[in-house]
Recover the amino acids of this structure.
């Protein structure tokens, strides 16, 4: 495991950059656990102060210190992304492995459902959910909804790997040795799809955090809960750019871009690592 | 030929299933929600004006009849479909008494135009550059292009649109950042109007293209760099086939097949991106309509936008799927 990481860092610049970016953001987000101020309180500091030694990221028009505000926002958003990714991974692993291994009509039915989920445009559905739930829509409900829509692409990927595993010797041995289907899938096949699960984990986080940002910026979530999107929502509603409080917009946008690039680079490099041909090319063999 | 019909029938079935599932899910969401649309609309109405209790009671009755709530679930579900098939989703509340469907149809050409042009541009540029980058793997220009587009790709539509808005709105105001056409031109098939529409669509389209390029680029580069190692490409090179022919007709042509399948898979996501982008640039399409309708508590219009988007996306996917056999002879022969 450590050897894999060492190789990745040594031979893969993208992985190293991604790791650094994500590392910085995770440390920044976890600082929120030691935050001296409650991020949901307003008018705790002098409003509209530019970045300075006292206020590292400045303060916003609502009298909040942006440093602690953003730290809490990134903590909430990352936790949100991880929740969605874990939940949707569970669905996609189950569907992908079952469809690939069982085959036949199970496969056909599951892939038909899969195709339906791929085709439904998620954004209008999410807005509809907000429209009918209004303030009952907390971030966990939203995570559940997104998880229900975030699995189909990855289930298909996992299925394609599982299809190949089905006819391998070891599967046949396991079946003849009397392993139950569930055991074959969990103990024999699951380890083979784990690299895909990890790389799609990052992609799924990107997607779900992006959706959250979009909904929150439009004001379609609980806007009093600090997340990446709600910080931008409040900046927009106070016309931060027009008033000249540029740091309220620019700093969050830079941090968002850093987070997304970091996660994306991790996903891409892990994806490449799965493919042995490109790995060898990179190591110069 | 029979194989083709079988293929089309299967895809058509999938399209109908998507529409059926999507619309049913929509119905369930609205049905199971703890909030009664009638009370919600009433709350909004009575908050703004001074209504007598009798007026409120009769409005409640009228609204209950209009939404058809209070009936058993299956009846409601059946009625919902009947009205949907007639294209009647009730009157919009924010532009009473215009039918909600008419509002959606007004916004639809804008959204579809933006979606169609940006998707076509993105698909062509992304695949062309990706294919060339996969073939000429040491070319500096393609490498740089790849880094830029890949860097933009993971960033959410909203943020990219927002950055473009800041750049062209505050730092370098040369292009219009809001609306679908200039205030001073009359809509119609005249030269100034068309020019104005094109000018206004540049920034929203640019943001969609920038986000979309990376995905195609990465996919195509990976496909092509695998294909160039195949024996038939080496053979063609050794046999002295012109390089343009190899790249265009042998390598990219084959790599295009999975990319067209991928196109069908991303349309739903691009559609979501389009309506998000519209909102940033205040573009008069379905996205802006959806947001306005949610803010105004306009039940019928929200439902209409959602229904039409599900149907439109399902239909678009169907059309792209029909293209697939034309590119891949194996599907035709099956």
């Amino acid at each position: 495991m450590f050897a894999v990481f060492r190789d990745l860092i040594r031979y893969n610049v993208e992985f190293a950059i991604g790791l650094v970016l994500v590392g910085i953001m995770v440390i920044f987000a976890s600082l929120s656990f030691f935050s001296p101020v409650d991020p949901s309180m307003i008018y705790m500091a002098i409003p509209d102060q530019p970045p300075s030694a006292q206020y590292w990221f400045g303060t916003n028009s609502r009298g909040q210190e942006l440093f602690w505000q953003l730290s809490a926002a990134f903590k909430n958003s990352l936790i949100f992304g991880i929740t969605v990714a874990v939940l949707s991974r569970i669905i996609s692993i189950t569907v992908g492995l079952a469809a690939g291994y069982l085959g036949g009509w199970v496969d056909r039915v599951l892939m038909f459902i899969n195709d339906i989920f791929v085709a439904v445009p998620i954004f209008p559905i999410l807005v509809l959910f907000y429209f009918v739930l209004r303030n009952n829509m907390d971030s966990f409900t939203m995570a559940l909804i997104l998880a229900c829509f975030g699995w189909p692409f990855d289930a298909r990927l996992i299925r394609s790997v599982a299809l190949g595993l089905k006819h391998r010797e070891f599967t046949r041995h396991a079946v003849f040795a009397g392993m139950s289907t569930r055991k074959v899938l969990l103990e024999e096949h699951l380890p083979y799809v784990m690299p895909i699960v990890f790389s799609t984990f990052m992609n799924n986080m990107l997607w779900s955090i992006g959706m959250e940002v979009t909904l929150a910026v439009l004001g379609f979530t609980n806007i009093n809960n600090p997340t990446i999107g709600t910080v931008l929502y409040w900046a927009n509603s106070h016309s931060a750019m027009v008033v000249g409080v540029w740091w309220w917009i620019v700093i969050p946008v830079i941090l968002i871009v850093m987070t997304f690039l970091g996660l994306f680079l991790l996903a891409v490099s892990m994806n490449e690592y799965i493919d042995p041909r490109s790995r060898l090319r990179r190591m110069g063999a | 030929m029979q194989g083709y019909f079988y293929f089309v029938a299967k895809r058509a079935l999938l399209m109908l299933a998507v529409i059926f599932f999507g619309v049913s899910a929509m119905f369930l969401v609205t049905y199971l929600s703890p909030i009664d649309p009638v009370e919600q609309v009433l709350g909004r109405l009575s908050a703004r004006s001074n209504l007598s209790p009798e007026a409120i009671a009769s409005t409640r009755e009228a609204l209950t009849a209009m939404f058809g709530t209070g009936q058993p679930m299956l009846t409601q579900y059946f009625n919902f479909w009947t009205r949907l098939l007639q294209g009647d989703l009730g009157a919009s509340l924010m532009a009473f008494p215009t039918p909600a469907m008419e509002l959606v149809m007004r916004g639809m050409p804008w959204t579809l135009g933006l979606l169609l042009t940006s998707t076509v541009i993105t698909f062509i540029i992304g695949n062309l550059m990706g294919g060339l980058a996969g073939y000429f793997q040491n070319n500096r220009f393609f490498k740089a292009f790849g880094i830029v587009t890949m860097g933009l790709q993971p960033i959410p539509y909203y943020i990219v649109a927002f950055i473009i808005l800041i750049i062209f709105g505050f730092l370098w105001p040369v292009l219009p950042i809001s609306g679908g056409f200039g205030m001073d031109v009359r809509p119609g098939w005249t030269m100034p109007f068309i020019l104005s529409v094109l000018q206004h669509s540049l920034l929203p389209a640019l943001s969609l293209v920038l986000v979309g390029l990376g995905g195609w680029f990465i996919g195509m580069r990976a496909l092509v760099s695998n294909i160039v190692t195949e024996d038939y490409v080496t053979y063609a090179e050794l046999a002295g086939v012109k390089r343009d022919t190899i790249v265009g007709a042998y390598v990219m042509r084959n790599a295009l097949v999975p990319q067209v399948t991928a196109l069908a898979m991303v349309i739903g996501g691009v559609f979501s991106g389009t309506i998000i982008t519209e909102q940033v640039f205040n573009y008069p399409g379905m996205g802006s309509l959806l947001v306005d309708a949610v803010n105004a508590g306009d039940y019928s219009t929200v439902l209409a936008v959602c229904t039409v988007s599900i149907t439109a996306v399902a239909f678009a996917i169907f059309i792209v799927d029909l293209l697939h056999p034309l590119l891949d002879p194996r599907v035709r022969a099956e």
